[in-house]
């Protein structure tokens, strides 16, 4: 979930200065239109890691826009007046009216996270808090409020580096607060709890936006653009009272660096190494599947990837390790008539393996947010709500002991072209390449964006995505097998504790 | 919540026979149209009290409609296959396809209720179960499924009477199952848990319908009509893909008996008794408000009622008992400009009393489901979702120690006319009667229906409605004061345990 925010994003000063000017004007204009129209209030929730630029961004938003139409509320210690009333009262009294923007610095999510980190909020109590938060947000959205939820992120390394740099700098060490030091100790717990809460509270009507916080230029432009696009979309829809206020793209690409670009596509495995490692990992898988601890788990592997990325070959190498009675491969193509008569997750639920068993999905429920999104096979509101539905689905699997591994096999455009040509010239493989593959290829940028959103929104601790560099098929196959084995071992280990 | 279902509803055989014929044909027609259109699946959840006609109704629905297009699923013990998979798998595999009806006899709610009654589901765990159920239902609705949730009800008295009658009847005692006897012992717990779960899971997209189960004719017609109207509304909306599949009226009135009719409007309090009891209850209130246990509570009293029912007079008698620093009266009229710029609950949240204090709302948030509904000041989807939002709101108050009493002051049409005339002829009171009052009077049946739905949907253990027979003002005033006092005392008592 935080993967995209942990790769380096940097915007240089010249670019920033140029873009800032345009953004400011547009934001100001949107802000006045918002006031003019007076149909929507805006709430901006600020959460995330200390030092990731939360305060600076709020300051900046007030500089960029008309601060008279913005109210910033902080919710630290409850006042006497607040303590004497129901917990939500403090939020209600600070709600911005229609036409205005309210920035909630420290909010219901901060309280959940503090509670989880310090252990005074039990897991089951968290359910109640989440139910309450979603109820409140859904009601506010139904009443016309636009909710932007920002998580400012730093990787652990970035966070530690910041502390190191600042602490010895007499001019800047005052910037470090006790909170910074406290958080450096609880970082892992905090991020873990954050991921859990974000996964369960990112809904189509009020999605989370995760912002890489290390570079000030990058994060400022990112927040500004998300806000701008969200406001503009709402203003457009408002006249017709469209059902969904949030039609903003899920992730604004402030720079051109996505998770997929951060892969080293040059990795390569020599033939001899491949043979040795493949046999080794296959043996390991065979053993793990026969382990008696497997009786308490099931295994699900999802294969997605570019056309001609080698999914089929990778799946065959996995299957080769196993007794056919242990696994089942489910190839996912266009739904059958029976499947079309059901909710889209139905055709995957029916193939969920029993404990002790293994199902390989050759393409999967992610079709909803990939091909169906890109090709327009479903409406935007349908794929927008799918991220939350899929996370719920996978949480249910995980809670029942299913070990879930998800692979995106990535190749670059050049490699794909090469493979397409090879297939066309090979009489045995010719059937594998169709007109549709060539058409899909033209939509490369759209798929790239969809894959980015998918990974950002559905890669979770319970069910992480593994991006596989697949220009070299041998490397890819070994990585796939090793990832499955590592996941099984980790699950066995965890169950022991 | 169960109040309406606990008054006697009886449909005689002749009426039933006549109506049944019409209903059957219409249901069958709707069923075929559903199959033809093939855009919606229907799920009917069957829950409630043993002996309230659950099985009989399911049997009847299969007789009335084409049983080939209905699949009945029971979910008792999990099978081996089910135990080996995530808990929801058993429901997914039984989902009806589009165009069909699935009846789920024993379902996710039965499991929650059993768990609560037998104590193996903790209160916090219930939150997780409810979150899961609502997530599933919302997703299904988004995918085009119509969900009807029926709770078949018997009052405790009705339930015990049934057991008594059947047990000594050699011809019918076989009808009693071990479940019946078990439930007779856990009735209170079961109904309490039921109310809690129903309150929290009745949503606009999948509301609960509570059906009085004692009379077979009544309950059969009621279920049949709700189903019919729901199906017809969905079929109508389906072409235009309207956002809300459930546009069926909340409560089908199978007979003309509503809760309001069950009031004995002839009750009367003699002047001497009134004076004595009034002083007594006022003294009691003054004392309770000064009780040190009041420091942990706040008090909110909501006054709604027919025009000229005497709300003002009753409120004055309450206030007369108190020090003005202890209470505050909030008269609710049309919202101010500031209030219109906020979610509709905002203007009530701002007046929520601090602990130790008392707020009287002269009209309240129930305007949303009364005047706004009847006059069309808000869209149907807005007041339909309000029941759930109001229940959430009141639950938050209650959890924070607020004691909530809600009064509906009821007079009959004749009495209202009389009072209107008196007001017109009285120079001092003349300002109290306007054109609008006369117009409202013409909408008496619409208000009557809205009041019925309001009480059915929002009278809960946490925040019960008290219907006050107000033809006699003196009786009404004493009943109001006594109800407040009893509620405070009960809260103090409860807090002690």
From TrEMBL, chains A, B:
InterPro entries: P-loop_NTPase, PolyP_AMP_Tfrase, PPK2-related. It comes from Pseudomonas straminea. One of its GO terms (molecular function) is polyphosphate:AMP phosphotransferase activity. Keywords: Transferase. Residues 12-234, 269-491 form the Polyphosphate kinase-2-related domain. PANTHER family: POLYPHOSPHATE:AMP PHOSPHOTRANSFERASE, POLYPHOSPHATE:AMP PHOSPHOTRANSFERASE-RELATED. Transmembrane segments: none annotated. It holds the Pfam family PPK2. This is Polyphosphate:AMP phosphotransferase. NCBIfam families: poly_P_AMP_trns (TIGR03708). The keyword Transferase applies. One of its GO terms (biological process) is polyphosphate metabolic process. Coiled coil: none annotated.
């Amino acid at each position: 979930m935080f993967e995209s925010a942990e790769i380096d994003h940097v915007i240089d000063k010249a670019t920033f200065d140029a873009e800032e000017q345009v953004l400011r004007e547009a934001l100001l204009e949107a802000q006045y239109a918002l006031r003019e129209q007076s149909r929507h209030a805006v709430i901006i929730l600020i959460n995330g890691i200390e030092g990731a630029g939360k305060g600076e961004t709020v300051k900046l938003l007030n500089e960029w826009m008309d601060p008279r139409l913005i109210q910033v509320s902080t919710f630290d210690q409850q006042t006497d007046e607040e303590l004497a009333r129901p917990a939500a009262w403090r939020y209600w009294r600070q709600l911005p009216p229609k036409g205005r923007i309210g920035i909630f610095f420290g909010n219901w999510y901060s309280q959940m996270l503090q509670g989880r980190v310090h252990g005074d909020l039990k897991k089951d109590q968290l359910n109640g808090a989440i139910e309450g938060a979603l109820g409140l947000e859904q009601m506010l959205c139904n009443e016309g409020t636009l909710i932007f939820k920002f998580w400012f992120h730093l990787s652990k390394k970035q966070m530690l580096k910041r502390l190191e740099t600042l602490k010895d700098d007499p001019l800047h060490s005052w910037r470090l607060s006790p909170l910074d030091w406290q958080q450096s100790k609880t970082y892992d717990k905090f991020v873990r709890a954050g991921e859990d809460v974000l996964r369960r509270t990112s809904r189509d009507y009020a999605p989370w936006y995760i912002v890489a916080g290390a570079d000030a230029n990058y994060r400022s432009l990112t927040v500004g653009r998300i806000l701008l696009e969200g406001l503009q979309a709402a203003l457009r829809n408002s006249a017709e009272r469209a059902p969904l206020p949030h039609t903003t793209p899920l992730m604004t690409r402030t720079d051109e660096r996505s998770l997929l670009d951060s892969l080293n596509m040059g990795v390569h495995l020599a033939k001899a190494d491949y043979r040795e490692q493949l046999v080794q990992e296959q043996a390991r898988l065979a053993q793990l599947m026969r382990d008696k601890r497997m009786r308490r788990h099931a295994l699900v592997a999802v294969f997605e990837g570019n056309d001609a990325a080698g999914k089929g070959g990778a799946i065959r190498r996995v299957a080769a390790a196993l007794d056919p009675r242990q696994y089942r491969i489910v190839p996912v193509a266009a739904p059958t008539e029976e499947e079309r008569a059901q909710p889209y997750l139905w055709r995957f639920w029916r193939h969920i393996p029993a404990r002790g068993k293994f199902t390989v999905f050759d393409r999967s429920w992610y079709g909803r947010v990939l091909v169906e999104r890109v090709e327009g096979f479903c409406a935007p509101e349908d794929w927008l709500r799918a991220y939350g539905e899929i996370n719920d689905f996978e949480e249910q699997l995980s809670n029942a002991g299913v070990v879930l591994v998800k692979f995106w096999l990535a190749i670059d455009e050049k490699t794909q072209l090469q493979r397409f040509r090879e297939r066309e010239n090979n009489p045995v493989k010719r059937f594998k390449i169709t007109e549709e593959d060539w058409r899909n290829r033209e939509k490369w940028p759209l798929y790239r964006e969809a894959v980015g959103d998918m990974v950002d929104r559905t890669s979770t601790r319970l069910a992480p995505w593994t991006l596989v560099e697949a220009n070299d098929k041998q490397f890819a196959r070994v990585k796939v097998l090793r990832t499955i084995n590592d996941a099984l071992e980790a699950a066995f280990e965890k169950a022991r504790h």
